[in-house]
Each structure stands twice: as structure tokens, then as C-alpha cells.
């Protein structure tokens, strides 16, 4: 994480090394997906991006941890009502993605962020996502093995 020097807010910074084609592709794919999903509820929002010859970076909203860590490493539990609310939020985020033409392709607890107090969630990590365009609407959809 880092601090936004303009607002003073803490932000999560995802850094991509530009020496590999895969990293460069992931950066551009993630950036494009985040553009498509700007302002969508239950989606981690980008607050800035930067590119240099060696590195590219995306600054995003800061959350306390991911859902995997929250449950399996910190040992937190949810009641039935909480599980229903979290599931509704996750489904809402997926619905927002699909309406925007974005398929995540790597949705897992590690890619769902959560804040401790509010239990707000946000789907993150769009580096493997598929972005639908008019040119590829009829192509075969790729999925994570």
C-alpha cells in the first residue's frame, strides 16, 4: 500500500514489471477492465495509473484484506445472515461486470476484498479478465483451468 499524495488516502498499488510481455498484457487488460467498471458497485476502483519504461502501476481503493485471509488465516466466521449479504454483494459485483462486458475468469476468495467494520466487499484483480467488444462477441469464451 501507499499514500495518495494529493488526497492523503491510503491506496493499494499493484506494480507490473514491463520486461515481460505477460506482465505488460496483464497491466493493459486490468487497466481496460477497470475503465469499463468505473463507478460500479462492489468492484475495486482504480484511483490512478502510471507507466514508465520499466514498471507500470495501478493505484486502487484500499481494503483491509481479502476474503481468503479474512476467513482462513484470521479465523473469522460469518453467521447465516452475513453469508447471505456477502453473497448478494459478490453476485451484484459479478452482475455489474457482466453488464459492462467483463468476465473475470479468476474469481476466488483471494480476489474478493473486504473491510472489517462495514463488511463492504469489492472484486479485484482483472489481469486475466475477458473484455467483450463488438468484434469478439461471438468468439469462444476462455476460462481458468
TrEMBL record:
Highest taxon above the source species: Eukaryota
One Gene Ontology MF term: protein kinase activity
A Pfam cross-reference name: Pkinase
Alphabetical list of InterPro entries matching this protein: Kinase-like_dom_sf (IPR011009), Prot_kinase_dom (IPR000719), Ser/Thr_kinase_AS (IPR008271)
UniProt-listed PROSITE patterns: PROTEIN_KINASE_DOM, PROTEIN_KINASE_ST
Domain Protein kinase per the UniProt entry, residue ranges: 1-145
PANTHER family: SERINE/THREONINE-PROTEIN KINASE
Name of the protein described by the UniProt record: Protein kinase domain-containing protein
